[in-house]
Amino acid sequence: MNLETLLRELDSAEVDLSGRLERVRLSANAIWAHQRLVWFTDHTSTRHSRRIIQLLGELLDRLQGTDQALHRSELFVLLTAAYVHDIGMQDFRIGDRGPETFAIDDYELIRDRHPARAKDLIVQRVLRIDPERGDFRIDLDDRLEYLLPIALVSQGHGSAFFESTLDEFNRADYAPENHPLRGALLTALLLMADELDLHEDRALFPQEMAQSPLVSLHHHVNHYVTRVSVRAGTPPRRRVMQISFSFPPGSASYQAEVRSFVVDKLARQARRVNPVLVGETAGELEIDPRAGVRETTESIAHARRPLPDSALRELRERTARHALIGRSRFVEDVLAWFADVTHVRWEIEAPEGGDLPLILRWLEAAATSSAAGWLHFNFAVAVGTEPEDILRRVSDEVAGVARDAVDDEGTATASSDPLVAPSGTMAEILALRAKPTICVFEAIDELEEQTLVWLRSELESAEGSAIPSLIIVTRRDSAPFAPGAKVIALGNIEVDAIVEHLSSEFGYWTESARRQAEEMIALSDGVPSRLHVAFAVRRLENFELVGNE
Q1: Which strand ranges, in their side-by-side order, compose the sheet holding 225-232?
Q2: What is this structure's pTM?
Q3: CATH architecture, domain defined by 327-489
């Protein structure tokens, strides 16, 4: 369904909304004639906004044939917001700095805050509040009955502002032309259509600028998506998302991870907007969180770019972190260590059936994505556990890392000549890493008392190394290993942590999340390993393969 054509058909001579929309479209095209922040995926009105409007038409195709159809004022607000919702990226401010001074380190802040900036700009530029020479102009009438809802819907497309925007609409009573306007519905529609606009046309790879791992990940994810569409489900009021991927040859090791990165977020956003869609349309519209997925491997050599190692490490760190349940404080402490880079010793009390394997998986991913060192020794494995055995293993790990070091392009960054395993104390060996390192000594319960005494002394001496390290020992019992170390007990997971996880990672609203969390606690007794299996199954329900080639 072409919504712009529909607006023209519903228009009247007295109120020329389609004419106003055309002026907005031309303004948006001028504003986006040159995308200032080139490290973002394409956000221009001529491509991004047009695809959003197409997706909105597919979402609304059936609804417009019911008594819950959007009236012309709602259509105008929604379509205008589709054109101007991202203008915060074209005139963002960080303190006194403007876009011309930004560096890639500012990426996350801009991405997170631009929806609020868009709302402010829409109102300021139309009402000419504090105009400055060179400000871009939005050719939109200053009638507040339209202007304020457009600004709010634009703000609400950002996930961080969605709920607060709904609250603002609930407190207001906008009625353009005296027709009540369902602002919450329009906000939910724009958020979902914006999320669905994944497409290879959005991927940008400017040769003059290096991309951070996160930026590179977003561009490559779009690079692999050839089509997104929405169709009628069963029943037809239930709209089904369909995504087609085309991966480069040799990408089998990360195809599932990229797919999960995409469909998990789409499912999360569908669950977030569904209560609004259903409530605002008397049950005539909802989105199936389960997406249909088609995957192919590109047959033309070099047509698709492989995912760089740095982007893959970023993907795996984020995937591993978001899988953790109720461990946000631990994650914050580790991230604080990356920021401070000091000598720290922790002890993790990890009983059987816990989530230590998932925590260690995230720790390794976090270390590799941040260019820190990673050393992991599991004493539950049947290997030598005498002091000389442990030192040899540490030496071998350090030497092996030095031999195998390569950059993202596969170029060796160290001599490929065989290295002799270094010898000395733990502190002397770790100092050879020449970079902050996370060292994990897992299952120290398996060591003999004499070896424990030696290891305790070695780890204490390692704190005098010039190279900072985060040293973690794990044990199953509650007997402290060394005085002065921070103790972290990995107990069972409480219902509130599950509620938070269901809300943040799966998009459930609080009431529904609590009901499901209580059911999961009853079935798992809060045992982390059982809960993680349950959540893994839920993630598999976020998609259905509808065809592979």
Answers
A1: 225-232, 238-247, 286-297, 543-548
A2: 0.90
A3: 3-Layer(aba) Sandwich (3.40)
